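Cross-check.
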Amino acid sequence: MKLMAQCLSSAAAVIAIALVSAPRPALADNYTVYNLGDANARGIYGMDTAGDVVIFQESCGVFGPSCYLTYTNGLVTGDSSTAPDMVYDDGTPCSSTPAGFNTSKKTCNQGLIGLGSLYNPNGDPNGVYIGSGDDLQLLHSGSADQVFLNSTGDFAWTDGADGEIFEAVDTSTSIVTPEPGTLLLVGTGLLWFTAAVRRKALR
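Predicted model, tokenized:
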């Protein structure tokens, strides 16, 4: 019985150390870029938190002179003669420009910035960037005449130079670790269980 108590104590200590030293949540900056088609007589109307992008378009056949197309992960999932009833999450004007960049268009949302840049003093190529603070990554070459950034990190833009509309969907994955409350609960339970087994072994 004493051997069992010692084994349980060791196991409890190992589990507690593993839980406390587990890696903190980390995000990998991964994006999938979708081409949403021609930008001629078309423009981005808005995007929602889920990353659905609504494009306003002229000459829509059965819908008359104009219509709204909703894109999800690069595919049309809805069309209408009126703007769809969505909660738009397009970002807001940025208060500053990241160091070393000349921006043509920029938008901010929840600590993120998305922008189109050209002739950057830092030597970075012209194109579309996303990130936070001065830590930006190049998403795509080209220009940005319209920019939309939602709170989950999806970014949509119109490239006027190439005449195309794009969306970059954030596919970052996080390493999930227990919250402090969960760690405390598990640790307390392990200690109580170990103490109970030890008491029983000493009898």
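The chain is about 20% helix and 35% strand. The chain has two domains: 2-24+177-202, 31-170. Passed to J.P. for a second look.
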